[in-house]
Specification:
Radius of gyration: 21 Å
Strand content: 5-15%
Oligomer: single chain
Largest sheet: 7 strands, mixed
Shape: globular
Mean pLDDT: 96
Bound molecules: pyridoxal-5'-phosphate
Number of helices: 12
Low-confidence stretches: none
Order of helices and strands: HHHEHEHEHEHEEEEEHHEEHHEH
Distance between the termini: 21 Å
Structural class: alpha/beta
């Protein structure tokens, strides 16, 4: 198909098509939900433990603690590490609000670090100078780094771990967008002291509501998180040994996730195929995602960078093609967060990214015909604007 020969598609294209996936496994999902309804173990029913075991097997993480959502997963991780007031936690400026929000909610101070221009993940040089700044110019105690695997692409764990070791910092991997992604020969939830993920419906592994999980190979941390998840319970649930949350995963969501985890490895392959098709067609015409050799992304988003973003987005919209800007403003420039410190060089790359990124429809069931329609219309817009 040449650029000019663009076929019309009858219906609007979904940005993420959750119904195609549901239709594929609807009988299994409905039976799984029905079983939970009849069994009536709505809180911490057997499906919760089973899902945790299966996720532990899938990720090779020794301990998996499911929880209420990806934000609570980060809060549980920070609480388990004892991070509190007067502590500094280094976070990327270009991420979803929850990464920094969780830090502020436990009373600690998020320190905004700039992004790497190639990977869009936390910039190593900016991280180093932010650490030096906190140690020399503030009275805060530098405690932890939260790298985010943005859009599903692993952060640079080799360098992050070296910096963490040198500066005696903990690492909490925010894998909300990257469950299943690998760095070297391990999944990213195997890096750091603790990792977290989200099962928000639009994430690579999503449930039908809110859900999340915490991963750690440390049994002691795991026990603390299990206690924090249920009000800080001790061995007896009416003798609480610490102040905790109510942050459990619902049994119904666990039952749904068991069915979805079964098809997840195939979906990751499909996402990678779709991403390669995009990149092959678009690389000569715009800035496509960069994937370092040692990394495998799970493509929570397929994000290009363009100059005239607004016109391009509008012209796609007129063809029934949705696109989304993740994220239009770095956290370091948002009302709730701009008073927090940032790296001495500021966050110029994060600002640049927020002005040029554009995420295209991406999900495992995007068919070739629809993808070609998206690609051809995008190429036309890029040529025109
Ligand atoms: C989605 C997301 C979260 C929060 O997950 P929820 O389940 O929505 O609370 C945290 N961090 C990042 C990077 C995310 O994308």
């Amino acid at each position: 198909m040449s650029f000019s020969e663009v076929k019309m598609i009858a219906q609007d294209i979904p940005f993420i098509d959750l119904n195609k996936q549901r239709e594929k496994i609807s009988l299994k999902i409905e039976a799984a939900i029905q079983k939970v309804l009849v069994d009536a173990n709505y809180i911490m029913g057997p499906e919760v433990l089973l899902f945790e075991q299966q996720l532990s097997k899938f990720t090779a993480s020794k301990n998996v603690i499911s929880c209420s959502n990806g934000t609570d997963a980060l809060i549980l991780a920070l609480m388990a590490l004892g991070i509190k007031e007067n502590d500094a936690v280094f976070v990327p400026a270009f991420t979803f609000a929850a990464t920094a929000g969780a830090v502020a909610l436990v009373g600690a101070t998020p320190i905004f670090v700039d992004s790497d221009i190639k990977t869009y993940n936390i910039c190593i040089e900016s991280l180093k100078s932010a650490i030096t700044m906190v140690e020399t110019e503030t009275s805060l105690n530098a405690k932890a780094i939260i790298p985010v695997d943005l859009f599903g692409l692993p952060a640079n764990y080799h360098k992050i771990q070296a910096i963490a070791q040198e500066n005696n910092l903990k690492v909490i991997v925010d894998a909300a967008q990257s469950l299943g992604a690998t760095y070297g020969n391990r999944q990213t939830v195997k890096y750091g002291d603790i990792a977290t993920t989200s099962f928000f419906p639009a994430k690579p592994l999503g449930c039908y509501g809110d859900g999340g999980a915490v991963f750690t190979d440390d049994d002691e941390i795991s026990d603390i998180i299990k206690s924090l998840r249920v009000h800080g319970k001790g061995t007896n649930k009416y003798d609480n040994v610490r102040v905790g949350l109510n942050a459990r995963l619902d049994t119904i969501q666990a039952a749904i996730l068991i069915e979805k985890l079964n098809i997840f490895p195939n979906e990751i392959d499909a996402r990678n195929n779709i991403a390669s098709i995009y990149s092959e067609a678009l690389a000569k015409h715009t800035i496509v995602p960069f994937v370092p050799e040692s990394s495998m992304s799970v493509w929570a988003q397929y994000t290009i960078r363009v100059e005239n973003r607004d016109v391009i987005q509008q012209s796609l919209k007129e063809k029934g093609i949705p696109s989304v800007v993740y994220y239009p403003l770095p956290l370091s420039e948002q009302t709730a967060y701009k008073h927090f410190p940032k790296s001495p060089e500021g966050t110029p790359v994060s600002s640049l990214l927020s002005k040029s990124v554009l995420s295209l429809p991406m999900h495992p069931y995007l068919d070739t015909e629809t993808q070609n329609y998206i690609i051809n219309n995008l190429l036309l817009s890029l040529e025109k604007y």
